[in-house]
Specification:
By secondary structure, this protein is an alpha/beta fold. It has one domain: Flavodoxin domain (Rossmann fold, 3-Layer(aba) Sandwich), CATH 3.40.50.360. It is built from six helices and five strands. Helix 1 packs across helix 6. The longest helix is centred in the C-terminal third of the chain and has 23 residues. The chain is globular. The site of flavin mononucleotide has 21 residues, from helix 1 and strand 4.
Length: 189
């Protein structure tokens, strides 16, 4: 049985989401998966054939409680390439995972879940069974008085994602990859 092949595509303006994606890559690799990590703005990200990977990870920050424009552009071109079919049939041994960083200053995680939902829809439209939606707190960059980072809905989030936040994502990814390797090895139902 070949190893689990995976690709993690992220968009990150300030680095938080890049760190989250990197933490996921570490966990996937620890479980023996092959991993490609690419920014959605990298030309290679548009050229790769997503259908060839067992696992596709999409990672983005929440912006104005949604997915940022470059992320929507990437997902839209991926959908065009995939030729989404009626009822978006689920492909065999093709999985997805969505990842979002957010600061949650006004309403907490509720202002990140629409971005997560968006990524999930992108994955499902290209026939993937979604096996996780992971959220990590990420402080605002360049917030001069740090009000949103100190006094937001989630309290003091300065320095996040921290080591613990990233370790959780690594553990999630490691666990997911182990489970999917088992499913790959099982005879198809
Ligand atoms: C323009 C902009 C809009 C944002 N809007 C939200 C938001 O609606 N909800 C939220 O929880 N965080 C919001 N954030 C915070 C980011 O989601 C958070 O800091 C994220 O970790 C940044 O990721 P990055 O460092 O990968 O760019 C916003 C940040 C920016 C720059």
């Amino acid at each position: 049985m070949p190893p689990l092949s995976s690709v993690v595509l992220y968009w990150s303006a300030g680095g938080n989401t890049a760190q989250m994606a990197q933490a996921a890559v570490q966990g996937l690799q620890e479980a023996g998966a092959e991993v490609t990590l690419l920014s959605m703005t990298d030309l290679r990200a548009e050229e790769i054939d997503l259908a060839g990977y067992h696992l596709v990870g999409l990672a983005c920050p929440s912006y104005h409680f949604g997915a940022p424009a470059p992320v929507r552009r990437y997902v839209e071109q991926a959908l065009r390439k995939h030729e989404v079919r009626a009822r978006a049939p689920v492909l065999t041994h093709r999985w997805g995972v969505a990842m979002v960083t957010y600061a949650g200053p006004h309403t907490g995680i509720d202002e990140a879940t629409p971005a997560g939902d968006y990524l999930v829809q992108g994955l499902r439209h290209i026939g993937r069974q979604v096996r996780g939606v992971w959220y990590t707190v990420g402080a605002f960059h360049g917030d001069p008085d740090q009000e949103n980072n100190r006094l937001g809905w989630l309290g003091d989030i300065r320095g996040r994602p921290n080591e613990h936040d990233l370790a959780v994502i690594t553990a999630n990814a490691r666990g997911l990859a182990h489970v999917l390797q088992h499913e790959l090895a099982e005879p198809e139902a």
